[in-house]
Write a structure and sequence with these properties.
Strand order of the largest sheet: 10-11-16-17-18-19-20-21
Shape: elongated
Oligomer: single chain
Radius of gyration: 25 Å
Helix content: 25-40%
Strand content: 15-25%
Structural class: alpha/beta
Bound molecules: acetamide, zinc ion
Number of helices: 19
Length: about 550
């Protein structure tokens, strides 16, 4: 009702402000005379195009959960009380374009393909008023033409530091879909936990998925001595991948190498340069079990572990290839992420096998050894028909020939990779690290950093330093959610919202329609949706702008 009232007041002045859609569509037109379509349990969904079941079930699930009814599907319209779903040739440069019209003939959604229809449904969901007792939902007459700006619209979730259960992972995927995002980068292995079942190496999850304790608080005042862990079985992974596919979301698995491998090393110490050396964690930070242990430990503190995969042993490559053999068929994604970030070279410098490898291959330093590591894995991943993604450290020592670079230490790595004609995904700490605080005040324990909503909103993924030609190598952008200080799903939600709204507009909406003042006006309605969904978010409007 409020939506309609707002519409009436604004009629004839500001077409865009009358509906509250995030991300802002490319074009929104409203008639001068306001009118609306009444959606009710007797409205039919008419499938004029085939293969649109995913859109129908998503919409009906949404209606069922929040409005208490579902709609029937038919193949022919009856009267005017219809939502017609169809295909129309629109713009096929990036999948997902759609047209949506609401008028006296009913609701009509046409997608360039099934993905486009699905995004039309997401917009329709945002045209729904809040639930009311009448089971009659007024949807304003509107004409929308829309398409994504970037092909890659991503979010990364770290389930290594804190494990996130399958129901939340599915909810997270729904959040992506509701914001027209399409890539879920699933960070599955870490120093602090290996989270994916690998049948050939059962100890990865028997041992590597569990730690005996975790450092306490932001300032590491000891260890909580609480055994912690969890992992996904391959059946669960398949279930989540299928769930995402129905929402036109690709899941990119990340298997970290050569660094961030302590959990795997705890399971199979021979993966380390020095299998007999105890994992280096000060006693004051260790669990009681950890203090007693003589050998390798799943990491119990945050930060970067020195113990990394040995680059001198062929058995390490065999192990990682075996892991890839099981990971690749689970994920239809054309990409496999191998990490590559934050790999200290201290062990490699004193490891006879790593040093021998360098001598044999004429590698001049350990950065070149890391480059050798990634290139060797790239060949294997390419042989499986997949493309390797790595964090921007993979530029050091020479980029693997077909690698995609994720630029996280600012934009520099992305700029350099694009100039080298490599595909780039932008994910700089300065704009899209959602583990940073949304406020200057400490409202909860966070890793540090300050990233208010406005700064995310004003991020431009194509750096001005790049020529127009090289700009085409920027596939899109992604926000990263590292979970050292996010122990549960509610905290993840609190950290991601509403920054995901800002990001969704950065990666979806045309650059020309991006408008911070207008976005701020649309946000309160989005917060009503979050309240409806029971989603946690940071809602302190005073803190949205950069201080
Ligand atoms: C990263 O934040 N270490 C990619
Ligand atoms: Zn070594």
């Amino acid at each position: 009702m409020k939506l309609l009232l707002a519409g009436l007041l604004l009629c004839g002045f500001s077409a865009v402000a009358q509906v509250n859609i995030i991300p802002q569509p490319a074009s929104v037109k409203m008639p001068r005379i306001m009118a609306d379509f009444s959606l009710s349990p007797s409205t039919n969904i008419v499938l004029e195009g085939g293969g649109l079941e995913n859109s129908v079930s998503f919409f009906n699930d949404y209606l069922k959960e929040f409005y208490g009814f579902t709609l029937k599907t038919t193949s022919k319209p009856k009267g005017r009380n219809n939502i017609i779903l169809n295909f129309e040739r629109i713009d096929d440069s990036i999948p997902g374009a759609y047209h949506l019209s609401v008028d006296q003939k009913g609701i009509y959604i046409a997608g360039d393909n099934a993905t486009g229809v699905f995004y039309g449904i997401q917009t329709l969901i945002q045209l729904l008023p809040m639930p009311n007792d009448l089971q009659k939902l007024s949807i304003p007459y509107v004409q929308i033409k829309d398409k994504p700006r970037f092909a890659y619209r991503g979010l990364m979730l770290d389930v290594g530091r804190h494990f996130m259960p399958v129901p939340f992972v599915k909810k997270f995927i729904d959040y992506l879909a509701l914001h027209k995002m399409n890539e879920f980068h699933w960070h599955l292995t870490e120093d602090q936990g290996w989270r994916i079942e690998i049948k050939k190496y059962p100890r990865l999850t028997e041992v590597g998925a569990w730690r005996d304790g975790t450092v306490i608080g932001r300032h590491w005042t000891g260890n909580d001595n609480t055994r912690y862990g969890g992992f996904y079985t391959q059946d669960q992974i398949k279930e989540v991948v299928a769930y995402a596919a129905k929402r036109y979301i690709t899941i990119i698995p990340e298997i970290e190498m050569p660094g961030h491998g302590s959990a795997a090393i705890a399971a199979y110490p021979w993966l380390s340069c020095f299998p007999d050396e105890k994992t280096n964690i000060p006693d004051s930070l260790l669990s009681e079990e950890g203090k007693k242990a003589k050998g390798k430990l799943v990491y119990e503190q945050w930060g970067v572990a020195e113990d990394v995969f040995c680059a001198g042993k062929d058995s390490v490559f065999k192990f990682l290839q075996d892991v890839i053999d099981e990971v690749a068929p689970l994920f239809p994604s054309k990409y496999i992420h191998v990490g590559g970030d934050e790999c200290p070279k201290t062990h490699w410098k004193r490891c006879p096998l790593c040093q021998k490898r360098m001598r044999d291959l004429g590698l001049k330093d350990e950065h070149e050894l890391q480059s050798y590591f990634i290139q060797r894995m790239e060949k294997y991943i390419n042989s499986k028909g997949k493309t390797l993604i790595g964090w921007d450290e993979i530029l050091e020592g020479g980029l693997a020939p077909n690698a995609v670079v994720m630029s996280w230490r600012g934009e520099k790595g992305g700029i350099e990779a694009a100039r080298q004609k490599h595909t780039v995904i932008m994910t700089p700490t300065t704009y899209v690290y959602f583990d940073y605080s949304q406020t200057k005040h400490e409202d909860s324990i966070v890793i540090g950093g300050y990233l208010p909503l406005e700064k995310v909103y004003k991020y431009e993924p194509i750096p001005s330093e790049l020529s127009a030609g090289d700009g085409h190598y920027i596939l899109g952008a992604q926000a990263n959610i590292w979970t050292e200080y996010m122990t549960n799903p509610s905290k993840v939600e609190y950290m991601m919202f509403p920054r995901v709204d800002a990001l969704s507009e950065v990666v979806w909406s045309p650059k020309s329609t991006r408008n911070w003042e207008d976005f701020k006006k649309r946000l309160p309605y989005q917060f009503k949706r979050y309240d409806l969904w029971g989603t946690h978010y940071f809602g302190d409007v005073e803190e949205f702008e950069t201080h």
